[in-house]
Amino acid sequence: MKELVIHTVSPGESVYSIARFYGVSPSEIIQANRLTQPDALVVGQALVIPGNFTAHTVTAGESMYTIARDYGVSLSALLRTNPGITNYERLQIGQTVIVPVRPRKLGTIYVNGYAFPNISTDVLRDTLPYLTYLSIFSYQVRPDGSLSPINDTPLIEAARRANVAPMMVITNIEEGASFSSALANTILTNEQVQNTLINNIISVLDSKNYHGLDVDFEYIYPQDRENYNNFMRKLSSRLRALGYILTVALAPKLSADQRGLLYEAHDYPVQGALVDHVILMTYEWGYTYGPAMAVSPINMVARVLDYAITAIPSEKILMGMPNYGYDWTLPFVQGTAARSLTNTAAVRQARDVGARIRYDAASQAPFYNYYDSERRRHEVWFDDARSIQARLRLVDEYNLGGVSYWTINTFFPQNWLVLDSMYDVRKVI
Questions:
Q1: Which of 25, 92, 262, 292 has its CA 20 to 30 A from that of 339?
Q2: Catalytic sites, residue numbers
Q3: Where along the chain do its domains lie?
Q4: Cβ–Cβ < 8 Å for 319, 282
Q5: What is the pTM of this model?
């Protein structure tokens, strides 16, 4: 694959100098990255360079003649694309040459995006072209098998107009609280309640014109593992008979016997056999109440996938992709909370505090440090085009079905530019 060009800002560079180097207009870079302050770039900031070209790194013995020949483009086109290269017979090893070639995509994948009902109309409109499924979060189950209602009709209608399949989501979140092990236990140990719940689910699917159901039950008691499997067996049987698809969100396990309340009741082989897609929640290594680190480090994601593909057909797996970062106050103290922020807000903050963005090779993620007005040191981890591209390569490497974003409520332009450069999005309606 010839990949999208991602430029990392060096000291002294501007949008205008970068545009001149790549032979594009400054406005193209500004618009593609939705830069609100293009005159104030951050050292270490990643920029997506729009256009049908790829970046070639010069090796020993290469010239502009040989590069043009190898890529099947004319020398004149290559020279026009690289106005800064005046001596095209003598290139330096490691030098970057921009080649006007349309990138070849790696394939077609499923893309799911979770959204809350309060997503803005503009963000939803801009995001829907990149989605297969829109999973609307969420119908909370109640102890009696009823469902707490949500205002999902506008999102369902918008999704279908854009040929995106709307997915109903159910969770064991207690109203006004969080995921509840006790609530899941109430559902999973009472067959009558399960029957009521399934009937209510089907009623919503039918009346709201949903395409299918996503089950996101978390923090299930380990002793309810088989109860959860049996519930999903029953649910799968009922929904398949009616033509609905079924997906399930599972914790990111490193092995079959991984301990912990989040993991033990999530049975990869059984659940994977029952559903159409498994959404692996491959994020939150760096999380609100934990120490500072990448939210979705690629080395940990790969370890999850290494196990997952042994237990679940790889084509059923949708790898989780976070759409947020965190700002931690250092030193980390157990019980303190990091502040969440969007990926674009993270760059904006780096600019405001005068931080230099660095990139961690092991986790394949950007980060920076700064001091606040009270002289407290902070560490910020987030995503940019480079980290998105690195994780998206795993979809091809592991032959996965696709990806799932948590959440799409904020628009991150670089993510969609990178995704679109690498894959076509499969449509099911």
A1: 262
A2: 218
A3: 5-99, 107-323+385-425
A4: yes
A5: 0.92
